[in-house]
Design a protein that fits this description.
With 309 residues, the protein is an alpha/beta fold. The chain is 43% helix and 17% strand. The radius of gyration is 19 Å and the shape is globular.
Length: 309
């Protein structure tokens, strides 16, 4: 797949071929136009139904003002953002909904509900965020992780982050994803730049089969991972040079800024979900438009079908 539109088409086809009913999406704090519009479009496309959780008056008023048809959706009145997030997680945990979705609620509040071991969706596996972007300046989709959850991941956490991203890439038809572990330079400098040592260790672990179903190399600077001229001029000898599928960033700050800079300064299309929880979690920025939220729904549905969650 090379475009976000292909993800949506693949999700619809996979859902139809699986014989499953459309999943119910539990949308927390759903009183914003972009969330409602994306859910209405998802239902129209056959991707999913929805349960809207939040202030019922605000949800109905927003839908009316924005001319969005929500007549087929159940609304659960819950004015508190934290309670709405907990309700969304609870519905999925109880099997009454299949996919939780973040609406107009702060990420920290939403994640607190999702990450709980009691009443949340935490199964004990590492949970991480994967953003997928379609840029006019790159010939295929790029997967970026982790720009939303793991602040300063340890070496072991980076293994989980890679495994989650690789699993998603394979769901999207990339049998052996190329994983670039990013740093500011290609040389290993454990004292001044510990992330370079982590990258070298992850590369060796992949070569020995500890990290499977992908090709890992690092440390690599961003330009060497995605730009042919940079890799050629710098003499980067790597199977990933200028051809990365997945970019693993050293910190949440790097991942968040990389994803958003491509989206907003590069006029890209994108989607984002959390992986590793009881179900894929639809997680977009509060500033995300309906198109990005719809793409995130499609990404989650495709993963849900492929992984048999």
């Amino acid at each position: 797949m090379k475009t976000i539109a292909e993800i949506s088409a693949a999700a619809v086809k996979a859902l139809k071929d699986s014989g499953k009913e459309m999943p119910f999406i539990a949308a927390a704090s759903a009183a914003d136009a972009s969330t409602l519009a994306s859910l209405a479009a998802a239902k129209k496309q056959g991707l999913g139904n929805a349960v809207l959780i939040g202030n019922k008056g605000d949800i109905e008023r927003t839908a009316k003002e924005s001319n969005i048809d929500i007549s087929g959706f159940e609304i659960l009145h819950e004015p508190s953002h934290s309670a709405a997030a907990a309700k969304a997680a609870g519905l999925v945990r109880e099997g009454k909904a299949q996919l939780p979705m973040k609406g107009l609620v702060e990420t920290a509040i939403f994640l607190k509900a999702v990450m709980k071991k009691e009443g949340g969706l935490n199964t004990g596996k590492l949970i991480s965020h994967v953003g997928v972007v379609e840029s006019a300046f790159y010939p295929k989709l790029l997967f970026i992780s982790d720009g939303a959850l793991n602040i300063a991941p340890t070496l072991n956490e980076k293994i989980g982050i890679i495994e989650n991203a690789v699993g998603l890439a394979r769901d999207l038809g990339i049998p052996t994803p190329k994983v670039a572990v990013l740093a500011a330079l290609e040389q290993v400098n454990p004292e001044r730049m510990p992330c370079t040592a982590d990258a070298a260790i992850l590369t060796q672990m992949n070569r020995r089969g500890r990290i499977a179903n992908c090709i890992v190399d690092g440390p690599l600077a961003l330009d060497n991972a995605v730009h042919p001229a940079s890799a050629r001029i710098k003499g980067i000898d790597s199977p990933i040079a200028a051809d990365a599928d997945i970019l693993i960033t050293p910190s949440i700050e790097a991942g968040n800024m990389l994803f958003k800079s491509i989206m907003y300064l590069g006029n890209a299309k994108g989607a984002g979900i959390l992986l590793g929880a009881k179900a894929p979690v639809i997680l977009s920025s509060r500033a995300s438009d309906a198109e990005t939220r719809l793409a995130s729904i499609a990404l989650a549905v495709l993963n849900w079908v492929k992984e048999g969650v």
